[in-house]
Specification:
It is a single chain. The chain is an alpha+beta fold and 138 residues long. The protein is 20% helix and 36% strand. The chain has 3 helices and 4 strands. The protein has a 4-stranded antiparallel beta sheet, with helices on one face. The longest helix has 14 residues. The mean pLDDT is 93.
Length: 138
């Protein structure tokens, strides 16, 4: 288990209700073996969990090469507390594009906040990637 990775039998940070091992953990640990999220929403949830766990390698690997930053440094003072998926459009296993609107609640040095984003995803060669998103407010 990588540092910062929760026990696979604990609840997943994405709030799906499944265990980490049955939910996002299988994508985080299986990426090197070709395991990938089957839908845009599943990828978005796994990316949220990666933010919550500080897994920058997973975040960069699932970011589309056309928009991926060369490096990613996370703010260690931010604690991600809850994810709510508001709406998902397309993004299924047979689609090539999809969007997910979500609200992610967090706590940082400034107090509590909510990040609202409309995220865009594409599926290439059977694998979903995060492209970009419009932040509605924090």
């Amino acid at each position: 288990m990588r540092p910062g990775t929760p026990d696979p039998d604990l609840r997943c940070p994405c709030g799906s209700g499944d265990t980490y091992g049955a939910c996002c953990g299988r994508f985080h640990s299986g990426l090197a073996q070709g395991a990938s999220a089957p839908t845009a929403e599943a990828l978005m949830r796994s990316r949220y969990s990666a933010y919550a766990l500080g897994d920058t390698s997973y975040l960069l690997a699932t970011w589309h090469p056309s928009t991926r930053p060369p490096t990613l440094e996370l703010d260690t003072s931010t604690r991600w507390r809850r994810l709510d998926v508001v709406r998902a459009t397309a993004g299924g296993p047979f689609d090539t594009e999809g969007t997910v609107d979500f609200e992610a609640r967090f706590v940082d040095e400034g107090g509590r906040g909510v990040l609202r984003e409309h995220s865009r995803f594409v599926r290439e060669e059977g694998r979903w990637y995060y492209v970009d998103g419009d932040v509605a407010g924090a």
